[in-house]
Amino acid sequence: MDTPIEKKKVMLSGIKPTGDLTLGSYLGAVKNWVERADLYDNYYFMADLHALTTRNNPADLRRRTLEQLAQYVACGLDPQKNVLFIQSHVPAHAELGWILNCYTMFGELSRMTQFKDKSAKNADNINGGLFTYPALMAADILLYQPDYVPVGEDQKQHVELTRDVANRFNNLYGETFRMPEPFIPKVGARVMDLLDPHSKMSKSDEVGNGRVCLMDDPADIMRKFKRAVTDCDCTCCIRYAPEEKPGVANLMSIYAAVTGKSFAEIEAEFEGKGYGAFKPAVGEAVVETLRPIREEAQRIMKDKGYLEALCREGAERASYVAEKTLRKVRKKVGLVAK
Ligand code: TYM
């Protein structure tokens, strides 16, 4: 008798190409995707429609979207095993996004921390897309019926809203969407700015020395780590105490995430040594982690034919699954079949 083939669970996630990918996007997101690639059926995309909620130079947005695809592959996401695609190449996202807007409440959207933060930072461009962004994100997720959505800490609230919207829809129309779980990494879930350990390292903020990008050259990375803010206490000891020593805790989290060492091991390694030894050691570990990724991404970026084929194949595979969910939804809400 044939043994039944167990169906793999589904993972899905995305990143907005609003800036060059940072160490935060890598440790909080892509690295964890790569580590779990064989265990799940995976869908990873460039959230270019989401990027339109802020103003971009069009040529930069196009370059960053393709560069992000090259970086996904360079980080180790095999395009045969993972469906890699550009969000706007699968029109079902925009269509389900609209439909779910009609099942997402004004009050829910108003409570989103990211909306409050972003509108405070960009008071001259608080557009409708920024406000309804979580409904599009819910569509991104629910189209693929994933079990898990691996994200950093800051996106957890959006995944929780997705569950509320899915639940509302399922209660109204019967089981339609699978309930996704956020999947937050133990270390690296919140990489902070090297110069301001109270705000997250962000790819969209002004160019800064507090942010390390995957494509930065090694000398730049070392300079940024050497200048990283540590905490003024008389001991200069390397100890994990996020409240008292947020700068050191951030560097320790980064070091832990790239070397796999525990906080206790790091404290022992640097016992009796000060920040002067610790900061360059973190810098070097990051340089060595990012070096092969940068070199491979640069090589892929030069191969336009390969990149185009990747985009086309990814969009076809994603559309096949997304359209199936969308057909079900269209029927349930009362749209006439095409
Ligand atoms: P975005 O583009 O801001 O960030 C992409 C992913 O990287 C994580 N991340 C971080 N993790 C740790 N430390 C940091 N400093 C850091 N900065 C970013 C984020 O948590 C995220 O997992 N709305 C999403 C994109 C999106 C999406 C989706 C994600 C659109 N649709 C559907 C999952 C599923 C966003 O703006 O992420």
Task: Give the SSE layout.
Blueprint: E1 9-15, H1 23-35, E2 40-46, H2 48-51, H3 58-74, E3 82-86, H4 92-101, H5 106-110, H6 113-121, H7 128-142, E4 148-150, H8 156-173, E5 181-183, H9 218-226, H10 246-259, H11 263-269, H12 275-301, H13 304-333
Helix pairs in contact: 3-12, 4-7, 4-13, 7-8, 9-12, 10-12
The structure holds tryptophanyl-5'AMP.
Tryptophanyl-5'AMP binds next to strand 1, helix 1 and helix 7.
Summarize the helix and strand pattern as letters: EHEHHEHHHHEHEHHHHH
Tell me the structural class.
mainly alpha
Rg on CA atoms, Å: 21 Å
Q: How far apart are the termini?
A: 42 Å
Largest sheet: 3 strands, parallel
Query: Which ligands are bound?
Result: tryptophanyl-5'AMP
Into which percent range does the helicity of residues fall?
40-55%
Sequence of strands across the biggest β-sheet: 1-2-3
Number of domains: 2
Q: What's the pLDDT, averaged over the residues?
A: 93
CATH topology call of the largest domain: Rossmann fold
**Name of the CATH homologous superfamily of the largest domain:** HUPs
The beta-strand count equals 5
Fold and architecture overview:
The model has no long low-confidence stretch (mean pLDDT 93). Helices cover 53% and strands 7% of the residues. With 338 residues, it is mainly α. Strands 1-2-3 form a three-stranded parallel sheet. Strands 4-5 form a two-stranded parallel sheet. It has 13 helices and five strands. Helix 4 packs across helix 7 and helix 10 crosses helix 12. The protein is globular and about 70 Å long. It has two domains: 206 residues, 3-Layer(aba) Sandwich (Rossmann fold); 82 residues, Tyrosyl-Transfer RNA Synthetase. The site of tryptophanyl-5'AMP has 24 residues, from strand 1, helix 1 and helix 7.
